[in-house]
Amino acid sequence: MTFDEQRQYWANFAEAGLGLRFSGSFLPQSMYFTFDAVRGVYLVNAGNPRHPNFYDFRAGLWYAFTR
Q1: Degrees, nearest 5: CA angle 36-24-57
Q2: E-assigned strand segments in 1-67
Q3: Closest Cα to residue 13, out of 27, 21, 2, 25?
Q4: By CB distance 3.0 to 4.6 Å, which of 1, 11, 34, 37 could disulfide with 60?
Q5: What is this structure's pTM?
Q6: CA-CA-CA-CA torsion sign (10, 12, 16, 20)
Q7: pLDDT in tens, 3-58
Q8: What is the Cα–Cα distance from 43 to 51, expressed in whole angstroms?
Q9: In the chain, which ranges are continuous DSSP H helix?
């Protein structure tokens, strides 16, 4: 959950979903890919030109720099 003191619709939301993390021998040990499917709800809908619910698909690449 994320809340905003100014109560802007896009900054007040809750999200939940599923995600996968992939790593392999062909990647450095500190690197992995992520894929997430998320369903969200805007908690404040005053001034919201969109639907009160949303779906989002996300992909990410993570790499940790360590010594």
Answers
A1: 10
A2: 13-22, 31-42, 53-63
A3: 2
A4: 34
A5: 0.72
A6: positive
A7: 888 989 999 999 999 999 999 888 888 899 999 999 999 999 998 999 999 999 99
A8: 11
A9: none
